[in-house]
Amino acid sequence: MRLKQLLTYIGLIACCAIILFPIYWAVSTSFKLPKDVFASPPIYWPSSGTLANYREVIARYLTPAIPNSAVVSLSSTALALLVGSAGGYALSRFPSKRRGSLAMWILSTRMMPPIATAIPLFLMLNAVNLLDTRLGLILAYVAFNLPFVVWVTKGFFDEIPVEVEESALLDGCTPLGVFWRLAIPMALPGIVAAGILGLIFSWNEFLFALVLTRSSATTLPVVMSSLESTDGIYWGHIGALSTIAIVPVLILAAFIQRYLVRGMTMGAVKG
Amino acid sequence: MRFKVKATLACLSLLLALFGATVQAAQQYKGVTLRVAALSGSLSHAWHTHAQEWAKAHGARVEVIELPLTSMYERVMTDLITGGNQYDIIQYPSFWKGDIMGGGFAYPLDEFIKQDDPGWNDYLPVYRDRLSKWGDRIYGLQIDGDVWMFGYRNDLLSHPDEKKAFKAKYGYELGVPQTWQQFLDVAEFFNRKKGEKLAGKTLANDFYGSELILKRGGGMGSVWTFLTIFGSYLKTPHVYDGGIYFDPNTMEPLINTPAGVQALEVMKKAADRRRSGPGGLDVDWSTFGVDFSAGKTMMGIAWPDLGPFSLDPKRSNIIGDAGFAVVPGAEKVWNVAAKQWETVEKPHRAAPLAWGWTLVINAKARQPRAAYDLIKYMVTGERAKAYAISPDDGLDPFRKSLFSDQDVLKAYKTIPTFIPALQESLTVGVPDLMIPRAVAYYDALEIAIDEALRGKKSPQQALSEAAQRWKRITDEAGREKQRANYRFALGLPAK
Amino acid sequence: MRAGWKEKAILLGPTVAWLVAFSVFPLLYTLDLAFRQWSIFTRENPPWVGFENFRNLLFDGRFWSSLKTTLLYVGSSVTAEVILGVGLALLLWQPVRGSRIFRAIVVVPMLLSPVVAGYLFRMLFHETAGPLNHLLAMAGLGRVNWLSDPSWALAAAILVDVWQWTPFVGILALAALESLPAEPLEAARVDGAGNWHLFRHVILPAIAHVVWVAAILRMVDGLRVFDVIFVLTHGGPGVSTEVASLYTYLVGFKSFNLSYAAAMSYGLVLIALGLVRFLARGAGVTQHK
């Protein structure tokens, strides 16, 4: 039994090392001096460091990318929550055979290859002069976060006992009032979790941002993908930008640890 | 006394006038912001430096939007097509000319040029006449003169021991390769393994006999290596006007002729590890630039930036050791009209006038006059000279006067072959394909090159497929339109 | 619970309307586009060309090769993720102290943007300065040209996918493991079943359906892969890692042949739809837990 435990630990630690090493490498690269970045053999534990990469990256790339990323993620998530939690509630509380297929249909819109919608979205936004605007990107991101929000919140609403709501209805509350005053507060942790995951998804999104923005509304992943030039890549900058992109995600994720797995699997697993 | 007062007054007023003038210049574009689209990296360098001086002097702001090679084209073109008007000034490579000028996205400059000369007559005609105009108007100013040339290690090529050994092995004198066959010989001869001797010294690392740019993708890749060799094997009336792509009467592609197959055969042999470094099909422009100046490789064909690179203490181990010449040529040519090979007296050469960056003002720019002022500043005076000398900006000489400029000559005095080679190359320059959709044509060609070099398809098959694709692109864009565009590019009557 | 159609409309209406406007309408628009001949350069009304784009697609070797690359990518990465994911789940399932911390660490990769993941690995894959080749060399193995050798580049991209998404399969499998009733396991143990036998005949059948769902979810995602490839290899060397989404993107936004790109993306949509139908059956299994 002891041996088994030891082996388990070794296995788990090895897995975690494999998982964390790439991230460690980016973080350490971001602090390396330029001459150390391409050292051969590679330097695993830099003995001297610099903040120059962060200074340069902040001066050159972070505006307007970070404000854009933040505004677009926050507003699209807020909108998706507003619209989607109502949808999730309806699907949870008024089920019917047809609703079941409606739920599947909502899910399937998320399964589409984004490139298929990116082309017409590009033309649509162009027609109404919303290309390269935050608003244009927000509209697209809400659509891409909605199915996920609907499914995850539906799962949380499913867990709230219907009896409370029914007695409220008998007391003369309207169904909408029940949704707003009873169901939402009770499902709040789940809604927050869905929101945080929506934030992370939007913060990470690349293809729509690449196609629908050019410079004014460009987001962090797009800026990162632009750092390559004919002279090669500034790995120090990439390291710094990766770190900047990762840190908020990890902080946010820490808040919803309990619901993370459930959210990532769109409610398929209730961890 | 009177005189003194008068003189003082005069001086004062003169000072005031001068001051007023400077203030006026400083105020001239106050509040104006100009947004420049440029390739990220060294090609943006001039905009971060020289353009900022201009901005300061005129009270304007110059914003540089650096775009990566992998997506610069689509981002600029979608902006222009959809009228996003994000960029006031666009710095683009010559093969986009058909899309940008031909698409009607550039602001005509004729009036500005008349009022305010950008050194028009000092431009090398080979660039100016082909790259600046569309129809009968001027839309662009060159900021770069790009022609492919041959770079080699002069110290090794002239080493007596090596010369002797080469003569013994190949039966002719070692010298600058004049033909592709000689290029392959020299590459094979100088390809040495770690531990072998080179010019009397034992090698600590492998030394590559040559490196050709063979990587597909991004645009600074294999197309121009192919065009250099292919163009040299092709006999058709308008080679030096850019006539190597299509038959100007029928728009039939020429790449799938035996000249194309021959070019791929040469590339295949050159890419062989017996003649080249381990990079193989992964060598792109930046790899070759780095390897050449680091002294890892004997020779190759590429842009003139090799000259300043080889002298740049930051990257070069071969300061003063580099030699330059016009690219090697073909010993026989495929006569397109007669459909047969012909031998030639002296090697037939074709040096791509590839990329040559052009500045245009967006047709929808809010401040075209200010934008013109800036681009004129960028292509004249000390700037043009700085580009010719500096290894940092990726821009090469485009003015006649630079070839006799004392500072330029002084900068290259340790590599005396550089300027003459550059001048000679211009006499065999082959312009890029400058019709709309050139990017798509080149992309199809690069895929064929890649497939053939990897042995996935025979050269003939790969090129025939590429030619099919070219025909489809032509049809999509409108055969007649493309024919007219192509004939215009060659300077032929529309017919 | 009962509610009038009005309430339902208020609650469900916005979701449906939004998706119709920004997901369904674009897809229909794409369909219409696919039957026209429209390069964005020609701004006139695009003519209707029937099935011409689809016919061209049939004879477009590059499209089929991109599809093959995509399937190879999906097949290999999902297979690896399932095997490694189940292994990971078994490890996490063991009752050891600190398992909460391990579980927290394990989910990190899937939170990262694929763009970031792509760059993280480009650094690791660097041929001379990357730690991966250094470790291989120390282990006495040869150097690998991860991203420039066409026979390795796709494997490298798959490796990134496996790194990022094995935890996803692992976590799903773990949830299934934890919901296993204790009795059959105990009974089998009492019968003297070995570990392998236990795994093969008791545990695996019990979690198979969940793992299957995880695999389908990964397949759907894998078919759409774009970001990682865009950053890691941009489809190169040659076209050896050019997946269908990337080729579609290049046709649409580099060649600006939007109608052809539309036809191509419909090919992808059909495949995705097929998989979603697959998923629909699987999802019913996991609804109750």
Compact description:
The complex is a heterotrimer of chains A (271), B (495) and C (289). Helix content of chain B is 44%, strand content 14%.
Low-pLDDT residue intervals, each spanning 5 or more residues of chain B: none
Shape of chain C: globular
- DSSP strand content of chain C: under 5%
**Shape label of chain B:** globular
Order of helices and strands of chain C: HHHHHHHHHHHHH
Head-to-tail CA distance between termini of chain B: 79 Å
Distance between the termini of chain C: 23 Å
Q: How many strand elements of chain C?
A: 0
Beta-strand fraction estimate of chain B: 5-15%
Q: Oligomeric form of this entry?
A: heterotrimer
What is the gyration radius of chain B calculated from CA atoms? 25 Å
What level of helicity do the residues of chain C show? over 70%
- Total beta strand runs of chain B: 17
Widest β-sheet, arrangement of strands of chain B = 2-1-3-16-6
In DSSP terms, counting alpha (H) and pi (I) runs of 4 or more, how many helices of chain B? 21
Q: How many whole angstroms does the radius of gyration of chain C measure?
A: 23 Å
Q: What does the main sheet of chain B amount to? A: 5 strands, mixed
Structural class of chain B: alpha/beta
What percent of residues of chain B adopt helix (DSSP H or I)? 40-55%
Summarize model confidence as the mean pLDDT of chain C. Answer: 87
What's the overall average pLDDT of chain B, rounded? 91
